[in-house]
Write a structure and sequence with these properties.
By secondary structure, this protein is an alpha+beta fold. About 45% of the residues lie in helices and about 15% in strands. Strands 1, 2, 3, 4 and 5 form a 5-stranded antiparallel sheet that branches. The longest helix has 21 residues, at about 110-130.
């Protein structure tokens, strides 16, 4: 392994999720978001279907998403305090990116599970590119993705809202032990 490969691999091995409350300005620029999308397009994708879309929420659109989240909280019976908390959650990250799936359930050659895997690969590539550019982020979902008004705001007919990436500059690097198992727990050699 040469030095450039080692540096790139060490950078990838240092990626971690950073929650919205630990993300600061600046968030990624439009040009950096385009680089992240280009990285996502390099993920494995049987049939080159690109069964996903990334919808950027930045600038004034953050306030619109906050209003959607607050309306959904009220409709769910959370009251004004809950509505305000959900609005603040939408405004916290400098940039949010809605992840939308476009799965073709009737595709003759590419079954749905392979399309979902392609979406996951694209998401991983997008987040790795964000990390390599110096940004932190975390995938968020929950009940909001199942809210019909929120889903309709992000999705065309036949699409599924998967969740959002919260993106920004990490306030600090996480400390402590890795919580996931080591490679010996997930890498098995089949014979």
């Amino acid at each position: 392994m040469n030095q450039a490969q080692d540096l790139a691999l060490q950078a990838l091995l240092g990626r971690y999720s950073v929650g919205p409350k630990h993300l600061l300005e600046p968030g990624p620029s439009p040009e950096e978001l385009e680089l992240m999308a280009r990285a996502a397009l390099r993920a494995p994708d049987h049939g080159e279907l690109v069964p996903w879309r990334f919808k950027v929420v930045s600038g004034a659109a953050r306030q619109r998403m906050a209003e959607l989240f607050a309306e959904a909280a009220r409709a769910a019976g959370q009251g004004e305090e809950g509505a305000q908390m959900d609005a603040e959650r939408a405004l916290r990250p400098p940039v949010s990116v809605a992840i939308v799936a476009r799965i073709d359930l009737g595709h003759p050659q590419v079954p749905a599970h392979e399309q979902w895997v392609a979406l996951g690969g694209a998401l991983a590539q997008f987040m790795s590119a964000a990390h390599l550019l110096g940004y932190g982020g975390k995938m968020l979902s929950g009940a909001k993705v199942r809210n019909p008004q929120i889903a309709a705001a992000f999705c065309a007919p036949g699409e599924t809202l998967v969740g959002w990436l919260a993106l920004g500059t990490p306030a600090k690097r996480p400390e402590g032990a890795q919580r996931k198992p080591g490679p010996q727990e997930v890498l098995q050699f089949w014979a």
